[in-house]
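Q: I'm writing up a methods section and want to include an example of the input and output format. Could you take the sequence below and give the corresponding predicted structure tokens, formatted cleanly so I can copy it straight into the document?
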Amino acid sequence: MCTQIKLCLYAGLVVFIGALFAWGSWQYAHNRLLTNELHVAQNNYNSLTQQFQQMIKQRNQLQELDTNHTKALFDARTHLNRLSAQLADHQQRLLVHNAVISSKLSKTPGSRGVGDAAPCGLNRTGEQDYLTLLKMIVKQRQQILYLQDYAKAVSR
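A: Here is the clean output for your methods example:
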């Protein structure tokens, strides 16, 4: 009877060791799988972190670009406003290159050309129209420059 008990104990011990080995093999495979998933997750995290840092860098470049062009537009408008004020106070004159057409029918001074000693120039409405057009040109130029730089920055 003692031999049967020993034999049962040995058989139980062999089954227990086999089960322990199977459990250990399963744990090893499971840990390898988790380790691989951890590496994949770390690589994804690093990739997303780099993309995020690149996006922040690009956003900062675009903000700087916007700030520079906004300042350039403000400076141009300030210059035009100063010119307009100087024209209104007669501190500045507009030089407009135009041809004076001689007319024998008109007796108005300045209508026959430079030789009749009348000043040639624009009236107040003409000056305002000129300044309005100049402001529009400056604004559109600044907007075009901004859009060109923005497109270059985004396409990098």
